[in-house]
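Fresh eyes needed here. Kindly weigh in on this sequence plus structure tokens:
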Amino acid sequence: MLLEAKTMEFVRSHGYPAPEIFEVSDDGCDLVMERIEGPTMVDAGAARPWNLPRFGRQLAELHRSLHDLPAPAWVRAAPCGSGDRLLHMDLHPLNVLIARSGPVVIDWTNAARGDPTVDVALTWVLIASGEIPAGRAKAALLRVGRKLLLDAFLKPFTADAVDENLAAVVDWKCTDSNMSSKEIERMRSMVTPVID
């Protein structure tokens, strides 16, 4: 938690929207931070789906402004790719709260140093492969919403640069024990060519 707190303090000192840290226990196991009022980007998008393209653009801007920052010395290297930029490594709509002041990024435990396209590719993989728990009609609508969000998110980035790291990101993320077998199958399908 100490590294997470240091990272949040670092990004806040550069004007990036993250919760303020009030206290870290002496043993580094407890963290007291600012309470952010507001829904996640997922919940806000479900309540007002017409905002999904705007949320996709906001998510892209959160990536771009974070990647403008050089990674501090205490941040570990990303599991794939190489570079010197600060990466969140979990910057998807569930980790963005929509506060009155605007979006705020939470959950900095995976922050790393590396190539910004790795961070973008990881967000793409997580959004595209995530479970959609719903009935058939609702699931179809949610898939349309996910596509609107993803299209707006990916538009500002160079596709070739992101694609270059996609396979490595998928290989790494498929080793995550938190991913379901269906999510892993969907991730693998993003990099496996379809043979007719």
Summary: The longest helix spans residues 136-154. The CA atoms of residues 80 and 168 lie 6 Å apart. The first strand starts at residue 21 and ends at 24.
